[in-house]
Design goal:
The protein is an alpha+beta fold. The protein has one domain: Nuclear Transport Factor 2, Chain: A (Roll), CATH 3.10.450.50. The protein is 21% helix and 38% strand. β6 and β7 form a beta hairpin. It is globular. The two termini are 32 Å apart. The N terminus is likely disordered.
């Protein structure tokens, strides 16, 4: 049996694509697979902690538990001027409109920038979010992203989704849509 990529002692572990999926199809069942492309520049413990953030997100979304989802966001969350309260409204609206939300995250890079309490984890990710419309019953693409960087910061002893790493232009470059949910 293959050894999980994050169990290798090498700090510059070559991992790579960790696919975290809330659902396979429309059942809401979680599925995870790992491929050997891309790279990770963090230790095993940090990889496990970061993956756990996304696993917790999967579980909370499957349960439609808004409070558990919001617990994954940093207190000072800010993504292109969207704050925690804005994200709460977005998730609430998604749960009102859709059921059996399904998401996939494909990680191609996990890098730690800075150190100590100022450390930030940058997770380069490609993925999507879809759900069954409560109106039409059809699976609808809600969001998709390519090579988006998710920023996480340490807060209360755990990694939380931060939003932007720092100052960002107010206007996104052509062809780049915001991806605020994770």
């Amino acid at each position: 049996m293959a050894r999980p990529m994050w169990s290798y002692p090498n700090r510059w572990v070559l991992v790579a694509i960790a696919v975290l999926s809330l659902a396979t199809g429309t059942t809401g069942e979680a599925a995870t697979s790992i491929s050997q492309k891309g790279f990770v520049q963090v230790d095993q413990v940090t990889i496990s902690e970061i993956l756990d953030v996304f696993y917790q997100g999967e579980t909370a979304i499957a349960a439609e538990n808004l409070d558990r989802i919001m617990a994954l966001y940093a207190t000072e969350y800010n993504y292109h001027e969207l704050k925690q309260a804005d994200i709460r409204k977005i998730w609430r609206g998604l749960f009102e409109e859709y059921r059996d939300l399904s998401e996939a995250h494909v990680f191609s890079q996990i890098v730690k920038v800075g150190s100590g309490s100022n450390a930030i984890i940058e997770v380069t990710c490609t993925g999507n979010l879809s759900g069954l419309s409560k109106t039409s019953g059809l699976r609808v693409p809600i969001d998709s992203w390519y090579e988006e960087v998710h920023y996480l910061t340490r807060e209360g002893g755990v990694w939380r989704i931060r939003g932007n790493a720092g100052d960002r232009p107010r206007v996104l470059s052509f062809g780049k849509a915001p991806h605020p949910l994770f």
